[in-house]
Amino acid sequence: MSERLGIFGGTFSPPHAGHVASAAAFAAQAHLDRLLVMPAFVPPHKVGDGVSFEHRAAMCRLAFSCLPEVTVSDLERRLGGTSYTYRTLETLTAPDRKLCLFCGTDMLLTLCSWRCPERIFELAEIWYHRREEDPQITEEIAGKCRFYTEQYGAVVHPIEGPVIVVSSSELRERLNCGESTAGLLDPAVERYIASWNLYRK
User: Are 42 and 77 in contact (CB under 8 A)?
Assistant: First the structure.
């Protein structure tokens, strides 16, 4: 039987409760044997916030330590350069392995504009989890899923479960202002951020 390997990529600056809840639901509903949390080395779509890959990977190891099926991977650092998803998937492809790629709402809606989208859809099943509760986006998501299936032969699955409405950008602003992040960041991640004085301008 083929291994089912999940890939959950992102900037993770910082990793938060929404990421962890999504990872747990993804692992369970996609029946994953393993889940790689993959901090981007050089994110192609985001401006850097000055927090290094090493810090982001260390915070991920703390945040996801409660999920035994998760391994935090440094693959995109080892590949070097801009972190393109198709390259990551090509590197992880193996004869006895099925790749499953996690997407949040923003990722799902923009996948067709990423580098080599046809390779992404060819190499992996797509699993998406809503990161917001805006009903107006529901039809947009449905339309994108139909388009990906018709245009690329994509296999797209929703991940069911409660939505934790929180973003890393919101948390960075709270941390910069000295506001509480209780319940949104793992206490070990909070301590790590404080010890390195991260996200303070």
Answer: no
Query: Cα dist. 41→8, 45, 72 in Å?
Result: 14, 12, 13
**DSSP labels, the chain:** --EEEEEEEE--SS--HHHHHHHHHHHHHTT-SEEEEEE-SS-SSS---S--HHHHHHHHHHHTTT-TTEEE--HHHHH-SS--HHHHHHHH--TTEEEEEEEEHHHHHHGGGSSSHHHHHHHEEEEEE-S---THHHHHHHHHHHHHHHHH---EEEPPS------HHHHHHHHHHT---TTTS-HHHHHHHHHHTTT--
Gap between the Cα atoms of 185 and 12, Å rounded:
12
- Read off the pLDDT of residues 19-62 as tens digits, 9 standing for 90 and up: 999 999 999 999 999 999 999 998 876 656 789 999 999 999 99
Residue 12's nearest CA partner among 198, 195, 200, 201 is: 198
In this structure, are residues 64 and 15 in contact, taking their beta carbons and an 8 Å threshold? yes
CA distance 166 to 132: 8
pLDDT digits 0-9 by tens, 61-76: 999 999 999 999 999 9
- State the first-to-last Cα distance of the chain, in angstroms, to the nearest integer: 51
Q: What does the alpha-carbon distance between residue 61 and residue 152 come to, in Å, rounded to a whole number?
A: 34
